[in-house]
Specification:
This protein is α/β, with parallel strands linked by helices and 436 residues long. Helices cover 36% and strands 15% of the residues. The strands form four sheets. The chain has a six-stranded parallel β-sheet, with helices on both faces. It has a six-stranded parallel β-sheet with strand order 11-10-9-14-15-16, covered by helices on one side. The protein has a two-stranded parallel sheet with strand order 7-8.
Length: 436
C-alpha cells in the first residue's frame, strides 16, 4: 500500500506523518515553498516538530504530478472555504480531484477528508475522477470519506488521539479504508454505513458548536443591556452538573465559522430553509461589530475623542496558541473600529506578519516583546509596523487568549483614562472596563 496525501496544511501534514511511519507515503502540495520547508524539517503551522517529521522516515514531499502516479491510495485534504456570498467554494476540491484523476489507476482508492455537504463526494468529485481518468467508479476505482477532526494548536488531541469516522463506496472499500486508518489512529475508528452519513456527521459536529456558542453570544448581548457580567452568570449556572460549558466569543477559523454554510446550502437545494443554524450564524457573524461598538462606547465614557484614537488589539489569529489566521473574526473588530476613525495596531506573537498582510492588508502588527517589555516588529518594512516605543493607547481590545498574554498587566498598554475591553475574559473583572 502506497499512500499519497494531497494538500499539506493543518489536516494533511499530521496525517501524512502518521502514515509515513508505517507506509511508503508521498505528501503532495502545489506550494513549492511549503514543500521546501517540510523537506528541511520545518512546519510553519507548528503542528509538527522537526522530530515528528523525522520520525516519519517513509514520508517524502513533492509538487510533481509524476511523483504520485505510483500511489494506490489517495487522500485529499484541501481547504473547502466559502465565497463572498457564503456559498461553498469547491474550487480547491475540484482541482485536487482533477489532479488525482490524471494519475488514477485500476484498483486505486480515493479518500476525501475535506469538509463538504452530504452528497458532495459522489455527486461532485466522483464524476471529475471518472472524466479525468477514463475509469468507472466502483468498478475500476473506489472512494471513501473520512472527515478531518484536527484541532489546530491542540497538542493533546492530536490526529492519532481522536476517533476517526470512516466510510467507503462499497463494503469492501469501506473495510479496507477502515483498516488503513485503524493502523495509525490510536483512538480507533467508527465505520459509517455510507459516505453521505460520514459527510453529514462532519457537517453537524461544527454546526452544533456554532449554535451553542451563538446562544452564549445572544446571552451576552442580553446581559450587556441588563448590566450583568456574562461570565459571572455562566460561572453560577455551571455549578449544575449538566450545564454545558460554552462561552461567548468570536467564531471564526476554517471549521466552525464555515462548515454550517455547507449544510445550509445543501438544505436549501432540497427545498428546506434552515432557521436555527442560520440564526446562529447571523448572531456569531455580528459579534465583531458588537465588540467594536462596545469599545467605542467605553472610549466616549472615558472622555476620549473617538476619531484619531489609538487602539491596540491583542491577538489576530482565529484562536489561542495557534498561528492560523484563516477566517479570523478579529478582523471584523478592526474594520469596524477603523470605520469610526480609530488607528489600529495589533500585537500577536503567533501570527506570521507576511501572511497577515496578505490576508488582511497593511495592518500595523507587532509580534515580539523584548527584554524590556517593549513590543517589536521583526519586519517593519513589509508590515508597516516598526518598533513600539512605549506609547500608550486610548483603547485595548483583548481579542485572543494566547498564553503569552496571561502575564500582562493590561493597564500598562493604555493611557490613564484608557478603555479596556476583554472579549475572552482573560483578565480579572477589576482590571478591565468591559468584557463579553
Amino acid at each position: 500500500m502506497k499512500i499519497c496525501l494531497i494538500g499539506l496544511g493543518y489536516v494533511g501534514l499530521p496525517l501524512a506523518a502518521e502514515f509515513g511511519r508505517l507506509y511508503e507515503t508521498i505528501g503532495f502540495d502545489i506550494n513549492q515553498k511549503r514543500i521546501d520547508e517540510l523537506q528541511n524539517g520545518y512546519d510553519r503551522t507548528l503542528e509538527l516538530t522537526s522530530e515528528r517529521l523525522k520520525a516519519a522516515d517513509k514520508l517524502e514531499f513533492t509538487t510533481r504530478l509524476e511523483d504520485i502516479r505510483s500511489a494506490n491510495v489517495y487522500i485529499i485534504s484541501v481547504p473547502t472555504p466559502i465565497d463572498s456570498h457564503k456559498n461553498p467554494d469547491l474550487t480547491p476540491l475540484i482541482k485536487a480531484s482533477e489532479t488525482v484523476g490524471k494519475v488514477l489507476s485500476k484498483g486505486d482508492i480515493v479518500v476525501y477528508e475535506s469538509t463538504v455537504y452530504p452528497g458532495c463526494t459522489e455527486e461532485e468529485c466522483v464524476p471529475i475522477l471518472e472524466k479525468c481518468s477514463g475509469l468507472t467508479f466502483n468498478e475500476d476505482f473506489y472512494c471513501g470519506y473520512s472527515p478531518e477532526r484536527i484541532n489546530p494548536g491542540d497538542k493533546e488531541h492530536t490526529v492519532s488521539q481522536i476517533r476517526k469516522i470512516t466510510s467507503g463506496s462499497s463494503p469492501e472499500a469501506a473495510a479496507k479504508i477502515d483498516d488503513l486508518y485503524k493502523s495509525v489512529i490510536v483512538a480507533g475508528t467508527f465505520k459509517a454505513s455510507s459516505i453521505k452519513v460520514a459527510e453529514a456527521a462532519k457537517a453537524i459536529e461544527n454546526s452544533q458548536r456554532d449554535v451553542n456558542i451563538a446562544f452564549m453570544n445572544e446571552l451576552a448581548l442580553i446581559f450587556g443591556r441588563l448590566g450583568i457580567d456574562t461570565n459571572e452568570v455562566l460561572e453560577a449556572a455551571g455549578t449544575k452538573w449538566n450545564f454545558l460549558p460554552f462561552r461567548p466569543g468570536l467564531v471564526g477559523g476554517h471549521c466552525i465559522g464555515v462548515d454550517p454554510y455547507y449544510l445550509t446550502y445543501k438544505a436549501e437545494s432540497v427545498g428546506y430553509h434552515p432557521q436555527v443554524i442560520l440564526s446562529g450564524r447571523r448572531i456569531n457573524d455580528g459579534m465583531g461589530a458588537y465588540v467594536a461598538l462596545q469599545t467605542i462606547k467605553l472610549l466616549i465614557k472615558k472622555g476620549s475623542s473617538v476619531r484619531g484614537a489609538k487602539a491596540l488589539i491583542l491577538g489576530v489569529t482565529f484562536k489561542e496558541n495557534c498561528p492560523d489566521i484563516r477566517n479570523s473574526r478579529v478582523i471584523d473588530i478592526i474594520r469596524e473600529l477603523e470605520e469610526f476613525g480609530v488607528a489600529i495596531s495589533v500585537f500577536d506573537p503567533w501570527a506570521d506578519i507576511e501572511e497577515a498582510k496578505r490576508e488582511y492588508g497593511a495592518i500595523k502588527i507587532y509580534n515580539r516583546v523584548n527584554g524590556a517589555g517593549v513590543l517589536t516588529n521583526e519586519n517593519k518594512e513589509t508590515a508597516g509596523g516598526g518598533r513600539y516605543n512605549g506609547e500608550k493607547f486610548d483603547a485595548l481590545v483583548v481579542a485572543v487568549a494566547h498564553n503569552e498574554f496571561k502575564s500582562f498587566n493590561p493597564r500598562s498598554f493604555v493611557t490613564e483614562n484608557g478603555a479596556i475591553y476583554d472579549v475572552k475574559g482573560l483578565y480579572d473583572r477589576s482590571q478591565v472596563d468591559g468584557r463579553l
